[in-house]
């Protein structure tokens, strides 16, 4: 169906705007942690927020107050879990993964790369982004908990950025 009623369009405009404002306010109140680079836990919270937001806007049977409460609940749960993970190591171990070493002293750690499903091409791209032209110039490459790759150059290695 292309068009149901003007009331439906008006509801989406009003509820969407108010829900959006509430979500922005909740995210600002919850702090920068809610908007940081994402690990698996952050991704789940983000998807849940997006799904809840869309449901509140498009489902006529969900009042705005209930939708905002659902958004607030998700943000509060995320805040509580991150608060606990900062204070209690078992909670942190449950929520966050450990960084993984993929290159050591210029040598690929192929088993770690296979386990983490990272290709040599992805490592080489991270090396180039860091201005390192060869894997032999890297002391290590680490797959961080947010999925990014960090490169630490070997002592005495110069990056191509330094040569420019």
Give structural notes.
- It comes from Methyloceanibacter marginalis.
- It is a multi-pass membrane protein.
- The chain crosses the membrane at residues 6-27, 39-58, 64-86.
- Its main location: membrane.
- It is a single chain.
- This protein is α+β, with helices and mostly antiparallel strands and 164 residues long.
- It has seven helices and four strands.
- 16% of the residues are buried.
- Residues 159-164 have low confidence and may be disordered.
- α3 (64-87) crosses α4.
- It starts with 5 loop residues before the first helix and ends with a helix.
- Strands 2-1-3-4 form a four-stranded antiparallel β-sheet.
- 59% of the residues lie in helices and 11% in strands.
How far apart, in Å, are the first and last alpha carbons? Answer: 60 Å
Helix tally equals 7
Question: For the residues shown, what is the average pLDDT?
Answer: 84
Structural class: alpha+beta
What radius of gyration results from the CA coordinates?
22 Å
The number of strands is 4
Along the chain, the helix and strand elements come as: HHHHEEHHEEH
Q: Major sheet: order of its strands?
A: 2-1-3-4
Major sheet size, sense and barrel closure: 4 strands, antiparallel
DSSP strand content: 5-15%
Unreliable stretches (pLDDT < 50, length at least 5) are: 159-164
Oligomer: single chain
Name the overall outline. elongated
| Structural domains: how many | 2
What helical percentage do the residues reach? Answer: 55-70%
């Amino acid at each position: 169906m292309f068009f149901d009623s003007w009331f439906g369009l008006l509801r989406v405009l009003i509820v969407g705007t108010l829900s959006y404002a509430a979500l922005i306010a909740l995210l600002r109140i919850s702090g920068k942690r809610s908007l940081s680079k994402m690990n698996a836990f952050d991704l789940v919270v983000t998807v849940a927020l997006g799904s809840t937001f869309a449901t509140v806007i498009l489902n006529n049977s969900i009042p705005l107050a209930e939708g905002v409460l659902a958004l607030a609940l998700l943000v509060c749960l995320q805040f509580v879990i991150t608060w606990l993970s900062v204070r209690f190591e078992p909670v942190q171990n449950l929520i966050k993964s450990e960084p993984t070493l993929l290159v050591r002293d210029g040598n690929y750690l192929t088993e770690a790369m296979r386990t983490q499903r990272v290709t040599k091409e992805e490592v080489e791209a991270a090396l180039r982004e860091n201005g390192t032209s060869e894997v032999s110039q890297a002391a290590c490459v680490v797959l961080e908990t947010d999925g990014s790759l960090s490169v630490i150059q070997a002592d005495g290695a110069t990056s191509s950025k330094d040569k420019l």
